[in-house]
Amino acid sequence: MRSRTGGMWWGTTIEAPDPGGPARFYAELLGWPVGHEEPGTAVVAASPHGPFLVFQQANGYRPPVWPPVDGQQRPMMHLDFQVGDLDSAVADALALGATAAESQPQRHVRVMLDPAGHPFCLCLDQD
To answer: Cα–Cα distances in Å, from 13 out to 30, 55, 56?
Structure first.
């Protein structure tokens, strides 16, 4: 990006009914600290320079439905995480409060739902 400056940070902003809940979930899942939390916003960061996951308060939040269903809230995006041991990564995510989606369309990928219902994928590193 041509307008990028040395102090510019980047990340993804995700809506949630309680920003602190998913922030703590992803902080534990990824081993990243919650770098900032205030009413309505929580930020998880790999380092002080990012990348960042920002969680913002969403009034009237409806969790997305996976797989998509006509007339229901569709997932607008999802996060993918590469893992070395799929079964262990799934167990870790479940222990932190995730649930496994009923539909699992790929053998080397597990679709999971975070505590707020956002889908994310654990993808087996096949190298």
So the answer is: 16, 6, 7
